Amino acid sequence: MIRLENVTKYFPGMERPAVNDLNLEVGEGEVCVLVGPSGCGKTTTMRMINRLTDPTEGKIYVEGQDTSKMNPIKLRLDIGYVIQQIGLFPHMTINDNVATVPLEKKWARSKIKERTNELLKLVGLEPEEHGGRYPSGLSGGQQQRVGIARALAADPPIMLMDEPFAAVDRITRARLQNEFLRLQRELNKTIIFVTHDIDEAIKMGDKIAVMREGHLVQYDEPGKILSEPANDFVANLVGKNRSIKRLHLIRVNEILGDPTNEVKMDASREDVRAIIDEDITATAMVVDEDRRLRGMVGRLALEDKEGDRAADLMDEIPDSVTDDATLNDALSVMLEIGEGFVPIVDAEDYFVGTLTLNDLLEQVRGDRGAA
């Protein structure tokens, strides 16, 4: 647990405190997102928690201990830290980057190797393929995964994340967010997460702390921030399209029905045509014997391509979404690929259904009706 009591921070030359009389409590296993405009005190608050800067007034407690009485080096080694710029050491391999804190803690080499391999797999990177490479040989999204693995290396109970996904493109960002939330469901860390993006805050947070000019304006669950903004500042930060923003709060698997447009690789042209004629998306999703998604057949392919089986007729899938993604993630992919639907797969790439734009519109209409 993290608790801030009457915390104020002055910096020389500033007309007002960067953080002003802040009271905040983050429960064990919660993700608390600090959100607000630039200069509102978000990053200063985070930096005070691991004593990269100390408060001018007030107290900060981490797991019941007053941080002002703790060794700052030991405190930082026990807190995972992920930043926007990733901060990987360019002259060190991926394995060595991940091992930074365990080495500082003087873990045995065998234990470090085991932990490094475990974490790279956990964040979706194969140790044999990526462990010996250098950061420059990885994409931005892969580097961000390494940054998360490094922060988790010594299994810290608390993690601080300062705009960790801001440096990657929108689709990669959504996937990293979902992967991290999946990890959080397994690991149950206590997390302070800084962002300037209210959409990201709604998606990532168990609680959201809205800040303005060093003050805490509202501290609530995302649904409450959307439905009951404390004042005009919070309402303007959330924006007008609150029904659309609620798509961040709903997972695909919460509304997805059974697949209706699935065909096997060896399905006949006639069977494929029957599916296309009946399905709202006018497509057939082609799966192998294990029900892994392999391609799709639309009307154009059906008319233009030769062959008697679905495998002969199918095109590549332009993109897919995992079933634990949010409805807003699914909408973003639909817009990206220019389709009114997107195939849904699980974590093992098994096909589980197709989500349509109409499904999303029904959620938005339902939310407006309830309001």
Question: Which SSEs are present, and which pair or pack?
Answer:
Layout: E1 2-9, E2 19-26, E3 31-35, H1 42-49, E4 57-62, E5 65-66, H2 72-77, E6 79-83, H3 94-98, H4 100-104, H5 109-122, H6 127-130, H7 140-152, E7 158-162, H8 170-187, E8 190-195, H9 198-204, E9 207-212, E10 215-220, H10 222-227, H11 232-238, H12 242-245, E11 262-264, H13 269-278, E12 283-287, E13 293-298, H14 299-304, H15 310-313, E14 321-322, H16 327-337, E15 341-345, E16 351-356, H17 357-370
Parallel strand pairs: 3-8, 3-9, 6-7, 7-8, 11-12, 14-15
Antiparallel strand pairs: 1-2, 1-4, 4-5, 9-10, 12-13, 15-16
Summarize the structure in words.
With 371 residues, the protein is an alpha/beta fold. The chain folds into two domains: 2-249, Rossmann fold, CATH 3.40.50; 252-370, CBS-domain (Roll). The chain is built from 17 helices and 16 strands. It has helices at residues 42-49, 72-77, 94-98, 100-104, 109-122, 127-130, 140-152, 170-187, 198-204, 222-227, 232-238, 242-245, 269-278, 299-304, 310-313, 327-337, 357-370; strands at 2-9, 19-26, 31-35, 57-62, 65-66, 79-83, 158-162, 190-195, 207-212, 215-220, 262-264, 283-287, 293-298, 321-322, 341-345, 351-356. The chain has a six-stranded mixed beta sheet, sandwiched between helices. Helix 5 (109-122) packs across helix 7. The radius of gyration is 24 Å and the shape is globular. It starts with a strand and ends with a helix. The model has no long low-confidence stretch (mean pLDDT 90).
